[in-house]
Write a structure and sequence with these properties.
- The chain has helices at about 15-30, 30-35, 40-45, 55-70, 75.
- It has about 80 residues and is mainly alpha-helical.
- The chain has one domain (about 15-75).
- Helix 1 packs antiparallel against helix 4 (about 55-70).
Length: about 80
Amino acid sequence: MMRYEGNEELADKTACAGVRADLKMCLLQSDCCKKEKKTPRECLNRTDGSVPNECLVLRNTFFECKRSILDNRQRFRGRKGY
């Protein structure tokens, strides 16, 4: 999870917004985006090692969070992610 200074808050208050923001920042700071000048969307589909493993974990967490929105059982358990 990214650390935010002071009273910084995300403008997006929807479900899974924190995970989405962390995934976005992780991809933008990766070698794929910085050195190879690829878009974050292109970097998500790469498997050559230019994307850090933590970004791939965040991608899976974001997927699970979005899936938990559609799952009616999660009404009792709460959403996954943060």
